[in-house]
Amino acid sequence: MKHILVYGDSLSWGIIPNSRKRFSFDKRWPGVLENQLQDHGVAVRVTENCLNGRRTVWSDPFKAGRDGSEGLAQLIEISAPLSLVVLVLGTNDFQVMHTNNAWMSAQGMSKLISIIRQAPLEPGMSVPEILVVAPPKMLVPKGPVSAKFEGAELKCVGLAKALKAVAEEQQVYFYDSADVTDASRVDGIHLDEDQHQVLGKALADVLKCILELQE
Known about the structure:
Layout: E1 2-8, H1 10-13, H2 29-39, E2 44-50, H3 72-79, E3 84-88, H4 102-117, E4 129-134, H5 152-155, H6 159-170, E5 173-176, H7 193-213
Parallel strand pairs: 1-2, 1-3, 3-4, 4-5
């Protein structure tokens, strides 16, 4: 059986836009991904480690534990053996308290890739493959998240391109979710239910190809 770890933020946690509620597993994209792969005959387990507000490498001044680099090596050790780690981060790097640009966020992602590759695994366990997924391009934020993400749609310009460059440099897989979906029509930041379905199905096709190369 293949074991996939999804390491992300609220987009992958499945927060329902304009609420503090969560889509059920089969409705958020990691669940759609797992079900699609199993329907295609792939024996797979998808483990989610997704935290609302998680950044790549920055802390949140108001909430603890949002630096995505903290504890990542131990998480890889805990979850091993892994066939693939899917990294879906970057959105929160552009919250209003940060002055980051796309290049800086991508460098944060590069650090996460290095941490995964250096994680202390048991003898004989291989380092997992890595897929970097660029989040959907943010729209003008609306509703309760608008103050927290004010100006984020401008600061994040070029993120997908910068993440692709890092993926090529680090020789990991890359996918731009903007190829199949925009951000939420409701709040401009997260994913609506139908967008989770679209992204999960698209990533199932990508992961099926990656996993087949491991056989």
